[in-house]
Amino acid sequence: MKYKTVGSCAKEISFEIHDGKLSQVFFKGGCPGNLRAISILLEGMDVQNVIDKFSGNLCRNGTSCTDQLAQALEEWQKSQERTA
Prior knowledge:
The chain has helices at residues 32-42, 47-54, 65-83; strands at residues 2-4, 10-18, 21-29. The relative contact order is 0.22. Helix 2 packs across helix 3 (65-83). Strand 2 (10-18) and strand 3 form a beta hairpin. By secondary structure, the protein is an alpha+beta fold. The protein is globular, with a radius of gyration of 12 Å. The longest helix is centred in the C-terminal third of the chain and has 19 residues, at 65-83. Helices cover 45% and strands 25% of the residues. The two termini are 18 Å apart.
């Protein structure tokens, strides 16, 4: 999935989800060293766990790159509920 961010340094986040686990997280833009490290740490994590940890983590403009990821994952969850 690709998610266009709003109000964060990263302009786009792409990721895959398999069996409720996050993989292949990539932030386009933002702080490359930090966001690459976060992406590595997130590999294989449960989607809900990531949402719980990152939702509301603010940097500037009322959001952050990780908060935007949480929002993207929430959007993904809602799309899964609609198709279930």
